[in-house]
Structure formats: structure tokens, C-alpha cells
């Protein structure tokens, strides 16, 4: 038990933010403590002691110690949820144990919950006594909202939703906040209480957040309008007042926000993080390139080449020296630790470097970069756009993707590997995103190196050869046992030109989705 936490009936153990991709499952596990599970995005099924419960964004459930849980996500959703684990010693105190009448309940103020959960997540690992007391206070604030939920279950009010719809469709016009209670048929005090329970904000605060979200889109759009034009288009008649509101909410002026988007940023990475930055409206001054892989003057992939005109290519196939990057005069260097370019020596001591950790998925990279640059809302809009592209390509390929089981193989000189069902951006896109069915013999993550004899034992029904060496594939097809493979016998070996298939960023993922779908469509 942490210092300062042994005198309370409830004590926080841990908090985790978990993400389940489409079609994923959280295998059955038994809880060794009490827990709150809150869904921030998406929907799926939560099985509690064998009973299925539908969960969606804004829902919370209280799980008791010893409960056995499992979670399943449908083909159309990605689920992000928080799991808050805590010890309950309420039996030793004069308190009523927490209890929900229903296993799954909607929370009255999702925005407040997510703010509290993110703050707890940030503080959970700090050993400082001040952090212990702060997370203790935040945890009890969270339990306070749970207790209110238990004592007076909340039900959404359609009349409040109607006024929210009105704000979303009329934000660009002058709106008299005092007219909204009349629209909802409530007294002003009752309306404000109900509105805040539903949104976590006052009506005026919600309108301001809505308007500023639109303003940020306009500030970074090509051929940017003037501040006066932007202010007018979102419902403000005075650009100076708009600027004051923007700075109070964002901590930076509108012009400062635009300048930050035009900061000179360099990327030192094994991944094309310039893809993520471009999607956020930022062209880096220097970025990684692979001249032996891409037949372009810069070594950038073709789908990014025209958008990186003026960006200095950094050859990531060798060590990238700090002085080469600094010669581009960046305000900020985003540096990943990767093979051949560790975070040591001069890199550690440079004052304008942010050391950037690895993430498991392309969209997590985008979210982390947007947090670093304080433009989080932009990331969610981009992710949604890519998800729509994924859904449209999945629909096009439905008649092909449901036709059998697949494995993804990469063949290089002296190296053959089978990609797993999870843990890699392409296999995630191919199996979950586009709906292809993985071979049931493949259960590993990321990739696994194999030899030809093991490939024969797998005997796949269909094979996709990805990022493979053409000469090596040709030699393998001359092997006397090649035709023994079921996929080879039935002409179910697919070898597209996948040299630029790179689904680790928004543009690369969209490009890969479209070109992959086009390849299979032409085969009929």
C-alpha cells in the first residue's frame, strides 16, 4: 500500500487504458480486486461471470473481486476503455458498499469522467507523496460520482439532446443561451443542471468548445481565412473577443496556434512519422528516408514525395548524425530510439529534442504526436477519416475476403517469416480492417521466422507474399516441393507489388488500403 493510502475504506491499486481493435477479444480473467470499467469509445460485449452485457461509449460497470470477465469487440468498432482497480475495506468502516442496481449504467458526465481518468493515469506511477495525495483526491472524486450514480440513477433527457442538436447546427449564428431552457421546456436552473449532467459542461461552455473546434479547423485549412472571417463564421462578431476567448480556452492566441502548426520540426525515426505530421498540417524540415527501398529522388515513398518537397531527407539506413539534423535549423526534433540511432551521447544533451517512445498502432502514434503538439482533436478527425476509407474498401472486398483462410508471408534471401494475426500494422489492417480470414494455425503476434519445411507443414489455403524479394520468390517456386503446397496447387498464391504498402501512418494506410483493394478487385 502506498504511503498516505492506508486509512481509507477504498484505496486505488492501478488504472489502465486499454484498446481493443475490431474483432479482438480480451480472454477470460479473474479479478483480484474491485474494479470500475468505463468505455470511452466504441462498443462491444462484456461478459461478467458468464453473462453478456452490451457496453458502449459512456457506460460504466462496477466489478467485484473474484468476478470473471471477458470482452469482445465487433467487426465495426474499436473500443477504448479504462480499468480502475481498487481495494475495498468498507466492511471495516461505517460505509455502505458500492453497488449498481444494473450491471451496466450510463455515466451522467462523460467529459468529467475522462478528465479524471486521464489525470489518474498520469499520476499513478509517481512515487512523490504529493502525487499520492493528489491521485487519492481524484480517485475519491471519481468514487463520489459513482456514489451519486448508485443513489440516484440518471436517465438521459431527449429535450436536452434536442438543444444540443440545435447548438451544433446553429453555432455560426448569434445564440441567446437564455432561450435554450424554453426550447427544452425547463426552468433555467433545471435545464443547466440537466445539461451539465449530460455533457459535463455548462450550455455556454459547450457552445464555446464547439465554436473553437470549428475555428481550429479553419485556422489550419489551406488558403486560411482572416481572423475576422473565421470569427464571423463561428458566431463571433468581434475578432478581438474571439481571440480572447480562444486564448483563454487554448492557452495560446489563434495566431500562436497557427505558428505552432508551422514550427520547424525534424523527425529522426525508423518510421515515417512525417506521414502523421503531414496529416496534422505540419511539413517537417527533415525526415527519414530509405533510398534503397524507394525509387524516388529523395528516398521518401511515392505517396509522400510531392508533399515533402523542401523536406531534407535523412538516410535512415545508416546512423543519422545530430549535426546533419541541426543543419535544417529545426525548432524541435522528434527523436525515436531505433537500431543504429540510439538515444545517447549528443542526442541526450541537445536542448531542442523530444525523445518519442514506440506505440503499438498507427493511430496511437498519431494521438501521441497530437498530444505533444496540443492538437488532439485533429487526430480523432483524421483517424475517423481513415476508418471510413477502411470500411469502404472492406465492403468492396467482401466477396473475396470471406472465401478462405490466409497467411501473410515475406520471403527474403535467407529469411522467411509468417506475420501473425495481431501486433503488426499490416496484418491488423488485412485481417481486422479488410476482413480477410487468418489461417487458424496462425496464432502468434507480430511475425515468426520459419523455414520451407515448416511452410509445407502449415500447407496454407491462400498465401499473400508481402514485401518479398522477386528473385528469391522465383527460386522458391523452382523448389521441387513447391507444388505440394495447397495454395500453389490451386493458384491461390498472391504476390502484388507491395513495395510501397506502409500502413503505419494516415496517408500510407489509406494508400495501402486502396492499392491492396485494387489489386484483389482486378483479380475478380
- Major β-sheet profile: 6 strands, mixed
Q: Report the structural category.
A: alpha/beta
Q: How far is it from the N-terminal to the C-terminal residue, by CA? A: 62 Å
Per DSSP, what share of the residues sits in E-state strands of 2 or more residues?
15-25%
Low-pLDDT residue intervals, each spanning 5 or more residues: 1-6, 152-156
Tally of separate helices: 21
Shape: globular
* Total number of beta strands: 20
Helix content bin: 40-55%
Average pLDDT metric: 85
Oligomer: single chain
Structural summary, described in words:
- With 524 residues, this protein is an alpha/beta fold.
- 40% of the residues lie in helices and 20% in strands.
- It contains 21 helices and 20 strands.
- The strands form 5 sheets. Strands 15, 16, 17, 18, 19 and 20 form a 6-stranded mixed sheet that branches. Strands 1-8-3-6-9 form a 5-stranded antiparallel sheet, with helices on one face. The chain has a 4-stranded antiparallel sheet with strand order 2-7-4-5, with no helix packed on it.
- The longest helix is centred in the first third of the chain and has 23 residues, at 129-151.
- The chain is globular.
- The N and C termini lie far apart (62 Å).
- The relative contact order is 0.07.
Outline the fold blueprint.
Blueprint: E1 10-20, E2 25-30, E3 34-41, E4 43-48, E5 51-56, E6 59-63, E7 68-73, E8 79-88, E9 104-106, H1 110-123, H2 129-151, H3 158-170, H4 180-184, H5 188-199, H6 203-219, H7 227-233, H8 239-250, H9 254-261, E10 265-268, H10 273-279, E11 286-289, H11 302-305, E12 312-315, H12 322-326, E13 332-336, H13 346-349, E14 353-356, H14 362-372, H15 376-396, H16 398-401, E15 405-412, E16 415-419, H17 425-433, E17 437-438, E18 447-450, H18 452-458, E19 462-465, H19 470-477, H20 486-489, E20 493-494, H21 506-522
Parallel strand pairs: 10-13, 11-12, 13-14, 15-17, 15-19, 19-20
Antiparallel strand pairs: 1-8, 2-7, 3-6, 3-8, 4-5, 4-7, 6-9, 15-16, 16-18
